[in-house]
Amino acid sequence: MESRNESSEISRNKCAACFRQFNKMEHLVEHMRISYHSVHEPMCGICKKHCRSYESLREHVIGPLPKQECKNIFSIRGCKFCLTILDSPNARRVHQERCQLSGGLLASFANLGLRDNLTIDNGYARGRQVVALACKMVGGGSDGSIDLCARVCLIDENENIIFHTYVKPPIPVTNYRYETTGIRPEYLRDATPLRQVQKKIQDFLCNGEPTWKIRPRGGKARILVGHDLDRLQLEYPAVMMRDTAKYPPLMKTSKLSNSLKYLTQAYLGYDIQTGMQDPYEDCVATMRLYIRMRSQNHTIEDYPLAFDPQNRNNFASWRQSELERMSPEEMFAISRSDYYCWCLDS
Ligand SMILES: [Zn+2]
Ligand SMILES: [Zn+2]
Ligand SMILES: [Zn+2]
Ligand SMILES: [Zn+2]
Which ligand minimizes its atom distance to the CA of 296? Predict the structure, then answer.
């Protein structure tokens, strides 16, 4: 009985999103319960396979172990930065020229804008304001291995500097890491203490709203973009942070983050953090990555947000027998993402 019509049985148990095949329907159901497939996942423009991250999509269309049909088309019409498929080789050329950004002049601009106070606070922009924050670390502790924030930069969505300053760490600096930070002891001697800088930044982010009142949608509080924002130990609601080190589509695996240097190279097409580094450059890179992710064109479903109670366990309300009777496409249709897709900010 089991082997009767086995091949059609197997294709019936094929995941409609990632195309994995299962011997038994109950295994596909189990897979759907834990994989949180959704319209927000990176998707191959050729075969429509859904991937958990851009890294796995890159492997799928470029290599080292690509799917041959997809690789062939991608090599003619695919953008190697955002991984979308264009209509023709010519459209690809035009698109890719715009998709690849350059960062050459950034570092020299940065120092011109050196500003030591938060002056821009006039609510000029309509809609939610977005700012990016980055810092440079020096070393503390006996072997200089404790990272201490010594310089921060905050920019707006148009890459204008809002705030750019040296910071005095709370414990003595034992390694200035001069070759990469360019920071000398005298720069930090009269700098603003870390606590004060954190407070200033928090106030700026809250934008007049008490922390407890900040909601993910509506309201005046600003969205904060950055890479590895935890390092700054800000007191700011997680729902307002967009961290390029923790965003599943930009991660290496579900546990490992890509470095900002790698992300900028792979997704924006230019080099950062060469030689002496300015946090302005990191701010710009994270803001550009954020904007690129936010501008993805996804269908919006009912209950699109990972934190909607309906989605907390998207299959919990269904009986196993009901799910086993569904087609793979029907199961995919009720499946929801377990992370907040940045396209929802737009
Ligand atoms: Zn799947
Ligand atoms: Zn999305
Ligand atoms: Zn494909
Ligand atoms: Zn592109």
Answer: 2
Strand partners, 193: 168
The bound ligand whose nearest atom lies closest to the alpha carbon of 266 is: 4
**119 C-alpha to center of ligand 1: Å?**
49
Taking only the tens place, the pLDDT of each residue in 78-129 is 999 999 999 999 999 999 999 999 886 555 555 444 455 545 444 445 567 9
Q: Does domain 106-294 have CATH number 3.30.420.10?
A: yes
**Burial class of residue 228, CB neighbours in 10 A (0-12, 13-18, 19+):** middle
Tell me the ligand closest to 13's alpha carbon.
Answer: 1
Ligand nearest to the CA of 96: 4
Question: Got the DSSP string for 218-247?
Answer: SSSPPEEEESSGGGG-----GGGEEETTT-
Tokens of 208: 């007049």
Distance 90 CA to ligand 3 centre (A): 21
Report the C-alpha gap between 17 and 34 in whole angstroms.
13
**β partners of residue 243:** 226
Ligand nearest to C-alpha 94: 4
Cα of 232 vs centre of ligand 4, distance in Å, is 32
Q: Which residues of 115-134 are buried (b: 16+ CB within 10 A; e: fewer)?
A: eeeeebeeeeeeebbbbbbb
Strand partners, 225: 132, 242
> Pick from 345, 257, 260, 335: which is nearest to 302 by CA?
335
Q: What pLDDT score was predicted for residue 299? A: 87
Give the start-to-end residue ranges of the domains of the chain: 6-99+298-345, 106-294
